[in-house]
Design goal:
The protein is an alpha/beta fold. The chain has 4 helices and 7 strands.
């Protein structure tokens, strides 16, 4: 039997003490992202997210609550899990060491600035996560691109 192939990814949204969102500038594309990546075989979404955070930011951090789950259909089907990474203190921020081969830079941004740096679908994920965090709920939504 041939089972359908689906892509799975896990991300974390982090805030600073001013409630700005942490964005990363990848070396391999023009748009910015939140920390995260593809879930490998044998990893749970949470494990994958924590490993990606450690690889990309050089910090070991547990991610706690799921804020958003997006089903996305573009060229293939994919599921995007976005977890709450919490608020990073000034000390946490000082300890960030980005993975130079994949990350050019990082910073904390408010929504107006984020919209100019990320793809529309990432901006939607970020706004849904902020809403989920403020309402103590989880968003599930579907995005279908033709």
């Amino acid at each position: 039997m041939n089972y359908p192939k689906k892509r799975w990814a896990a991300w974390a949204i982090f805030f600073d003490e001013e409630w700005r969102v942490l964005l990363l500038e990848p070396t391999y594309k023009d748009d910015w992202e939140i920390p995260g990546g593809i879930i490998e075989e044998g990893e749970s979404p949470r494990e994958a997210c924590e490993l990606e955070v450690e690889e990309e930011l050089g910090i070991k951090r547990e991610v706690w609550e799921l804020l958003c789950l997006e089903y996305q259909r573009e060229e293939d089907d994919s599921y995007m899990f976005i977890f709450d990474g919490g608020i990073l203190s000034g000390e946490d921020i000082k300890n960030i060491i980005t993975q130079e081969s994949e990350i050019k830079g990082c910073g904390f941004y408010n929504l107006e600035d984020i919209k100019e740096k990320v793809l529309e679908k990432m901006f939607l994920r970020i706004t849904k996560c902020i809403e989920s965090k403020s309402k103590n709920t989880i968003h599930y939504y579907e995005t279908i691109y033709k």
